[in-house]
Structure formats: C-alpha cells, structure tokens
Amino acid sequence: MEHPKVAVINEDTLALIGMKTLLDQVMPIMETHTFNNLEELLQDGEEHFVHFFVSQAVLLNNRDYFMQRRYQTIVFTPTDDPAAQPTGFHCICCHLPEKQLVRQLLALEQRAHGHGQHLPPQSVPTVEKKLSKREIDVLRLVVKGYINKEIADKLNIGLTTVITHRKNIVAKLGRRSVSALTIYAVMHGYVDVNSI
Question: Is 20 within 8 Å of 32 (Cβ atoms)?
C-alpha cells in the first residue's frame, strides 16, 4: 500500500529541512516531500498530496491556491497569537521550544486522523521491537520530564536499573532524544499528548 504524501513548502531551505525531519518523526507513515515554492509543487503534481505544510509567507503569496485547500493546509506562523494568524487555516507557531512544537504536531495529527485510524498501517520496517512493561513505565516518565533519580524513586528501582532501561529503550527504538521518544510514546498510545 502506498503511503499518503505530504508537501512542505518553505522558501527558507534550513526551515524546510528541519520541518521535513520533524514531520518524518511525528508521522512516520507519511511520505514527506519538500518544495521551495508553489511552482515547484505544481510541476511535481499537487493532486497526490493529502496535506500542505506551508510557511506564512508562502501562504500570503499564494492565498487563493491554499484557500481552496484550507482543510488540507497547515500554516507555520511566527507567533501563537490567534489575532496575528491567518483566519480559516490550521496554524502552528514555529517559534516554540522543540517539545512544545512536537506536542502541537502530535495533537494536530491525533485530532485530524483519529489517533491514526484513518491512516494506513505502518510497514514492517518501521515497526520497532517491543518494549517490556518496565521499559514502558520508564519511557512514560522520561517523556513526562522526570530525570533518572526521580524515575528510580517513582518506580522504586535502582538508579542503575533506570539507566539500563533507558539504554535498552534507545537500542530497541533507535531514538535518542526526548522529543523522538515523546513522538514514539504518543504515537503508540503509551502517553496522552495532553499529559506531557
């Protein structure tokens, strides 16, 4: 089965690469394509994209095009003030700390796609090794911002045991950063996006 495709359009190449990387982590079953402007997208054929992630500048320069696709369009804005955001579009402030930005993307994905129920199943290569019950307990606390000592106290286990569990989690999932672990935990239902 073919993966749904999303387009990221931003004239700033560094922001474009960063958003692609983040979206690939948050929505691993989506295929993310990048474009520096609308003309590049149109040359590629826009009809096969289910979502468009665009900068506010791209939206303003091509408002008529995206207005017709406003339910498919997510705008990255420089502010989270609703009065300064374009009306009628889903907006996400891109000037947030990483954890908050990831949380907003995860919340958007869960609201729009019913916890992944409307998306195709993940392919075999993207399904990671199973975590043990205790590793899941540790993962939940890591995602909620607890440090190793606090995790040990909460779970009534030794500090070295927590460190071992964290190493095992990283080895099994291939994800090191807390943001990547957060994405995994939310996408697999281990934590609710509203609890982080």
Answer: yes
